[in-house]
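input
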Amino acid sequence: MHIPDGYLSPQTYIPLYGASVAFWGIALKKVKREVSVRHVPYLAMAAAFSFLIQMFNIPIPGGTTGHAVGAGVIALLLGPWTAVIAVSVVLIVQAFVFGDGGITAIGANCINMAVVMPFVALWTFNLIRGSSQSGARFVAASFLSSYLGLTAAALCAAFMFGIQPAIASTPDGRPLYAPYPLSIAVPVMAVEHLLLFSIVEGIMTVILMRYFMKNEPSLIYAIKEVSYDKIHLEA
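output
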C-alpha cells in the first residue's frame, strides 16, 4: 500500500503533507496528555511491530504494494492517536532509510495507514462490539475492525493515485504521474485487500485482542474508552 515517488502530483501530495502535519500535531499533544510513562514502552513496541509486519510487501498491479499494517490493533490497544504516531514514524523511517514508499508520498501514506486505518478500526470495533468482552461478537468486532480499516486505507490509496490521470496529464492526454485511472486502481486494490491482506490483518487482530483480553485487559484502550463513556452517560 506504500505509494512510491512519481505516482502523485504536487497538487495531491502537498495538501496531504499539510493534513498529515496537522494530525501529527494533534496526536503529539494527545499522546503526551493521555499516555502514561508506564505505557511508553508499549508505544515503542507498537512501532516495532508495525515496522516488522509491513516489511512483508507483495507488489500488486497499479504501482503499489499490499501488506498488513497493524494500525488497527494498535488503535484498539493504545488508542488511535498513539497509532497515528507509531505508524507515521514507521512510514517515515521506511521511506528515508529503506526506500519503501516515496518521500514525496509520505503525507499520503500516513493519511492512509496512520490516520484512516486506526480511526476506522476503532469506530468499527466500538460499533460492533457493544458491551461484549468475549465470545463471537467480540471476535467479530476485532476481526472486522482491522479488516475494514485496512480496506478503507487501501481504497483511499487507490483513489489518490487513481485520480492522477484526470488531474495531471499532457495536452495529448498522456498521464504525467500514476497512469492507472480509478476504473483500474480501485477494483485492483479492493479485490487484493478484501480477499487477502485485510483477512490476514483481521486474523492477526483477533489473536492479539484475545491474548490481551486474557492477560492484560486493563491495557486495551477500546475497552476503557467505552467503559468511560458509559459511566459519564449514566451519570
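quick obs: The radius of gyration is 18 Å.
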